[in-house]
Amino acid sequence: MDISQLAQFNPWWTEKAVPTALLGSQKRPYFGLVKKNLENKFIILLYGLRRVGKTTILYQTIQEILSKSINPLSIFYFSFDEQVAGIKEVIDLYEEKVVKTKTSKEKYFFFFDEIQKVEDWQNQIKILYDTHPGLKIFISGSSSLSLQKQASESLAGRLIDILVKPLSFGEFLDWQNIRIDAKNPEVYQTSAQPLLMDYLRKGGFPEITFEKENELIKTYLKNAILERILYRDLPQEFGLKDIELLKTLIELFARHPGMIVNINNLSRDLARSKITIANYLEYLKYAMLIREVKNIRPGFLTTSRKGKKIYPTTTALGFVFQNDFYNEANLQHIAETAVANQLDAQYYYKNSFEVDFVQRSNGQILPIEVKYGKPDQTQLVKFQKKFKIQKAILVTKDYFQLNKNGIDSLPLWFFLAQ
User: Fold this and answer.
1) Helix-helix angle 121-131:145-154, to 10 degrees
2) Cβ neighbours for 14, distance < 8 A, ≥ 6 positions apart
3) What kind of fold does domain 3-163 have according to CATH?
4) Which residues form the AAA domain (predicted)?
5) Per-residue pLDDT tens for 141-170?
6) CA 160, CA 357: separation in Å to the nearest integer?
7) Using CA atoms, how far apart are residues 241 and 252, in angstroms rounded to an integer?
């Protein structure tokens, strides 16, 4: 590695500004969270699925720092996504060739992208933090909560972690200059609801928000996200050889969102060992491609070890794999997936009857049922009676009614826009 490679990552050294093409067209709320913490010493960690805009937020942060008349040479960005290098190696080169001094005492800003590619990164960052009192560190990674867990364990008391998600439907509408007034939502139905299908097929990935061509959208989703993760990220990080199994599993979950996973059946049907199936499910969770929703037991304190449901973490996967994406029957599953991701759902209920999602917060229980067809409240009413729950939510296609027997019936577009 030489100075020319570092310079390519840091065009503001010579141009005094971040190139406009790197800044994106919009600032997301996550940028505000980062900006609010620019002046303190805490390490900022951005983590989340690939292509949700983490790097753009880093570039926007760099531009914000430059706007404060900070010396451009004191801002150092490096991505480990394409380069095989160590943290110390790139810092040594930066100190020797760029600033020509040690960075342990003065004010510097270090940005490390795709940090999960570096072995033992968390301890290296800890040492850097502890030995460089004037240093502000920003890191990002494209993987799951395990990245956040590694960081919180090794960098306790030093870290602010921010999970960057795909665009919410509310953000998607905002980018289209549509802002919903929650007090009069019906007024916005004619402008917001037609954009719902557009949002669901694109999955909230910022770069394709304004793309119109279905084939270009599918190509982007396949090449920039799925194939990058399945063919490169996971094999490189874990030494995986059975790429076909990864593809088969993710396609299965995209085509059948909310399916109950039975390891024994998958092992038999896919001719792989149960351990292999279980491990590959963990890899897909690590890459943030799927989420697990568990069956919560009566009492709401524990979950069943069996009967876990799997949902894709974005509705866009359904668009990639399903030719009948807009089929009315299929849209029920797409709607469930969208609601699961909006809620960060962890639980559902199934005993003598079933409720799609159960939210548990501060001792309060909220059942949520998705009925994209007929707005049937039967399951919610059963749940309310059995557990003496006063409030529930029914997510519908277009039916809107508040507080009928304690049940709020909300159209999907409105539920997602909140």
Assistant:
1) 40
2) 7
3) Rossmann fold (3.40.50)
4) 42-173
5) 987 657 878 888 889 899 999 999 999 999
6) 29
7) 19
